[in-house]
Amino acid sequence: MNENNIEWTKLAETISFEKEPEQLHKVKRDDIFIVKDEDGYHAINNRCPHLGLALNVGGCNKKDKTVHCKFHSSDFSYDTGEVKAWLNIKGFEKFMIWLFSKFDADAKKMMTMEPKPVETFPTKIADDHVWIGIDQSN
Ligand code: FES
């Protein structure tokens, strides 16, 4: 990441995270999910890298620093973006997806995708606000 190509966007007052430690903010066309934990502020793209569904609705595990995608049970580090679990579907739901995949090529493709990390963004605190940096060179 080239520091000179980063555009910083002011998001929310730091004090607002005391009541609401997980927040969703729109930055241009992206929804950015901000998680505050004991180490500070972490920013990720709210789109799950699997099918693009919303990550914020699945909840966070602050101990593991992960966010859970509730749609197909994947977990990502909200700190590094790393995949911690990918399509960890079990039981009847797994059987139904397997069955569906037998007859639908698109469904099969969706459920055999290679793991992809979630996009992360640097954060900083200035003027009592949380800012995120977006690399403009991408
Ligand atoms: S959309 Fe997140 S795991 Fe499928």
What tags apply to this protein structure?
138 residues; alpha+beta; Rieske Iron-sulfur Protein; 4-stranded antiparallel β-sheet; 3 helices; 39% strand; elongated; binds FE2/S2 (inorganic) cluster
Describe this structure in words.
The protein is α+β, with helices and mostly antiparallel strands. It has one domain: Rieske [2Fe-2S] iron-sulphur domain (Rieske Iron-sulfur Protein, 3-layer Sandwich). It is built from 3 helices and 11 strands; from the N terminus they run E-H-E-E-E-E-E-E-E-H-H-E-E-E. The strands form 3 sheets. A 4-stranded antiparallel sheet has the order 2-3-4-9, with no helix packed on it. The protein has a 4-stranded antiparallel sheet with strand order 5-6-7-8, with no helix packed on it. A 3-stranded antiparallel sheet has the order 1-11-10, with no helix packed on it. Strand 3 and strand 4 form a beta hairpin. Helix 2 crosses helix 3. The longest helix has 13 residues. The protein binds FE2/S2 (inorganic) cluster. FE2/S2 (inorganic) cluster binds next to loops.
